[in-house]
Amino acid sequence: MSTATAITEQEFGRFQRFIFEAAGITISSGKKAMLCGRLGKRLREHQFSSYTQYLQLLESRQDRREIQTAIDLLTTNETYFFREPKHFELLRKLAGEHRGGLPFRCWSAASSSGEEAYSMAMVLDDTLQGRPFEVVGSDINTRVLTKARTGHYALQRIDGIPQAYLKRYCLRGQGEYDGTLLVERRLHERVQFVHANLNTALPALGSFDVIFLRNVMIYFNGQTKREVILRVLSNLKSGGHFCIGHSESLSELDIDLVQVAP
To answer: Is 139 known to be catalytic?
Structure first.
């Protein structure tokens, strides 16, 4: 039976700097146990006897795959279908008002395992009635993106989906897939997932009518938050709409936006 490796304050501080420099994310001092729980397995994988050895591997920047693995383990964000429903009511209204032949484009900028992006797609498909739309989901975490691309979820995670949408857009697993749900193929094909670090230059995504960046700003300090938001907003169409979490605020950031709803 192995004993968990202890982490020193100095080592924890170095991990805080590493994840901040790599992803712009601030890990509070109260997250030490979380960090050890998630990264301890990497020490065992590499047969390291201290966190310093693992830090040296990360800080050398020679193993990009291991750096991404560490980022994946430290950036998992909880999400679920139709979280904060009023944003989806607004999305329905905006899509219903959309005119012209161009696709109505939406971006779930911190999509995690994809529930938000598929929720957007369900609303758009229902509202636009055959008119074109596109949904892009992005995340820094490659593991959750792999999950998102499958469109495959445990039934415990579907409570927020309206019953009519469950019948229309979801398939219930059978046999070995009993207890799971699959987003139906036609809707699944309307959603694209891409890897993006919001703290660095973004991939070429085009411009969007609506952008969701919700319940992630708690992980950024003030300056990083401002830089991330400005970077994301560079992809918002003139007159487009930007949604943040109900508990989040931009009031202290002096950004040129007009609030249209709480």
So the answer is: yes
Catalytic residue among 72, 125, 139, 209: 139
230: domain CATH number? 3.40.50.150
Catalytic residue among 38, 42, 131, 157: 38
Dihedrals phi, psi of 247, to nearest 5 degrees? -90, 0
State which residues form the domain around 171: 85-243
| 139 annotated to bind ligand | yes
Q: Output the six-digit token pair for 22.
A: 């790599």
The answer to whether 163 and 82 have CB atoms below 8 angstroms apart is no
185 is in an annotated binding site: no
159 annotated active-site = no
pTM over 0.85: yes
Q: Are 104 and 64 part of one and the same domain? A: no
Q: 47 in helix, strand or coil?
A: coil
Per run of 10 residues, the mean pLDDT along the chain (length 262 residues) is: 74 90 84 89 90 91 88 82 95 94 96 96 97 97 94 90 96 88 96 95 97 88 88 95 87 74 61
Split into its structural domains, the chain has a count of 2
Asked whether residue 256 is domain-assigned, the answer is no
Q: Could you tell me if 147 and 92 lie in one domain? A: yes
3-class SS of residue 137 = strand
124 labelled as ligand-binding? no
